[in-house]
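Field reference: sequence -> structure
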Amino acid sequence: MGFSQERIDTCIETCGCADPEAFLEIIPVTDHFLFDLKLMDPDSHRKYTGQSNGNILKNAALLVQNGADVLFRQPLIPGVNDSIANVEATAGFLISLGNNAARLQIMPYHRMGLSKYRALDVPYALGGLGAADDALVEAVQRAYAGHGINCTISR
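Structure field:
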């Protein structure tokens, strides 16, 4: 008896950096995708993540075009991806994918993972950043809503 016969939902959390064929293979057995969209500008994406976002954006479109249930999420990092330009570009991208993709969950940046980096003796590249405050998060949420995006906040 498989998962669907037992009514157990399956969910994959992804940054989208994978071979498109891998996504095509798992769509039929995956009920939900949590898909992170960090930055839309390719140069900024490379600067902060070390890689291009071209394949990531193609995979986002691939999932939506193949009928996958995708909740796009954005870790909101002050001074990194909270600009109006990034909000507008992200909203435009989601809208371009169709009505089923016009939803986004903001995940406000916090520093709770800092202790993990210390325990592993790994440098924490965002050490100088403060947490995203409520006023910023709510302003970004309103900006997305103004562009027609159903935007929620993960708290």
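Note: The chain has one domain: 11-153.
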